[in-house]
Amino acid sequence: MKLFNTILATILVNTILLSCTTVNTQSPKLLAESFTYLTMHVVVEVCGPTKEHGFRCLKLEPRKYSASGSVIKHIKENSYVLTAAHFCDIDRDKVMKDVVDPTLIQSLFVDVKEVKVNVLIEVLDGTGFTRIGKVINTSPLLDTCILETDRINVKALKLASAPPNIGDTVWNLASPLGIIVPNGVPILRGIYSGDVPLNAGRIVSVITDLPAVPGCSGSPVIDVHGDLVGMIYSTNMHFRELSYAVSLGQVRKYLEKVFMYKNKIPETSGNTTLEVEEPKY
User: Fold this and answer.
1) How far is CA 89 from CA 147, 176, 182, 267, in A?
2) Which ranges constitute the DSSP H helices of 61-159?
3) Strands 275-276 and 144-150
4) Residue 53 CB contacts under 8 Å (≥ 6 apart), including other chains
5) Mean pLDDT for back-to-back runs of 10 residues, the chain (281 residues)
6) Which of 114, 99, 102 is CA-nearest to residue 48?
7) What span, in angstroms and rounded, lies between the C-alpha atoms of 206 and 235?
8) Cβ–Cβ under 8 Å, residues 91 and 138
């Protein structure tokens, strides 16, 4: 056992020493004010004739879902936030199943005429103000989404000119489990480990030593220059310290398409949980 530990320690030390000359680990120029905390409020409302009070609508227990985002563009009086599609595309059927108690509904209503799912997205920006966000585009394949909101007076996050080198340190601005730091943002650090093909045929970036939990979805991955090199959207179910990000190249193509055809909103579907995918190694 001692021999094994000695060999392992030697390998680790040699790897670190060999890597120090080529791996970029210096602190980045972070644009923390471009980060946004996102909260989706969902309220299910059941309407119909009741047994005692005529026609009524009953609002059930509200649900909240959190995600992260970043301001990536301004157009006139509006700002645009990049986040994950599985946050924007609320699975209404699942929400109704989770909150509707059939026994309660049967005890109150003679008949159910309508079930409404009301959704409101709040965007808390880096300056401490909360605005309302509107989904203008989602891509279920890439798991990307663009929210439109009133203009946020911060510098938009710029796309990097090139992806990091394998082994480079990258930074992640995120809201894990919906944690909010007043006038700031949690800053996580990971290692860019290259791009891999996934099951759907897309190419994503792998970030190691970076745990992703619900709330981190949509969070920006930043290089040493403070530029965007990816967006966290998923994790590995077997090893939570490994996260997947939409690659820089695919983010760039997506944004070019969205803002070229901004008024075209595709039909989308999805859920509000942190998705899990396995790469094809």
Assistant:
1) 12, 20, 27, 10
2) 85-88, 92-99, 102-108
3) unpaired
4) none
5) 38 33 50 89 93 91 93 95 94 85 91 92 90 96 96 93 95 91 86 86 86 91 94 87 93 93 48 42 28
6) 114
7) 9
8) no
**How are beta strands 187-197 and 169-173 bridged, if at all?**
antiparallel
Q: Distance (Å, rounded) from C-alpha 239 to C-alpha 27?
A: 26
Q: Is 2 helix (H, G, I), strand (E, B) or coil?
A: helix
Question: Within 10 Å of residue 159's Cβ, how many Cβ atoms?
Answer: 14
**The two structure tokens encoding residue 220:** 């920006």
200 burial (CB, 10 Å; 0-12 / 13-18 / 19+) is: exposed
Pairing of strands 228-236, 275-276: parallel
237: burial class by Cβ within 10 Å (0-12, 13-18, 19+)?
exposed
Q: Report CA-CA distances (Å) from 54 to 35, 51, 109, 182.
A: 47, 7, 9, 46
Tokens encoding 62: 């509200």
* Dihedrals phi, psi of 246, to nearest 5 degrees: -60, 130
Tokens of 82: 């990049």
Torsion, Cα of 206, 30, 179, 216 (10° steps): -20
pTM value > 0.90? no
Q: What residues contact 219, with CB distance under 8 A and at least 6 apart? A: 35, 68, 69, 70, 172, 173, 174, 175, 231, 232
Computed from CA positions of residues 144, 149, 152, 155, in that sequence, does the dihedral angle turn out positive or negative?
positive
Burial grade of 16 (CB within 10 A; 0-12, 13-18, 19 or more): exposed
- The dihedral built from the CA positions of residue 9, 11, 12 and 16, taken in this order, carries a sign that is positive
The token pair at 11 is: 């390998």
Task: Find out whether 149 and 123 touch, Cβ atoms under 8 Å.
Answer: yes
